[in-house]
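Progress note, sequence design subtask.
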């Protein structure tokens, strides 16, 4: 499915100006139909999956209890 720059910005929760800059820098593949750029949404699936995986890993890490520190002062 193809999206416009505005729709892509909303889909990725990023500013339109940033998406437009990525298109002009050829960091995002897009097709120009004479009036506007059209961006294939499927190219972001792997990135979004990796972001969700990273968020889950971070949440798991932050929910781990802090281990008790050994008492290092008793080195007599």
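Output:
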């Amino acid at each position: 499915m193809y999206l416009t720059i505005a729709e892509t910005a909303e889909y990725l929760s990023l500013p339109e100006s940033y998406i437009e800059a990525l298109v002009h820098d050829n960091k995002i593949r897009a097709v120009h139909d004479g009036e506007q750029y059209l961006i294939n949404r499927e190219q972001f699936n792997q990135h979004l999956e990796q972001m969700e995986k990273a968020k889950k890993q971070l949440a798991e890490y932050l929910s781990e209890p802090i281990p008790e520190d050994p008492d290092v002062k008793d080195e007599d």
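The chain has one domain: 2-63. Work on this subtask will continue into the next period as scheduled.
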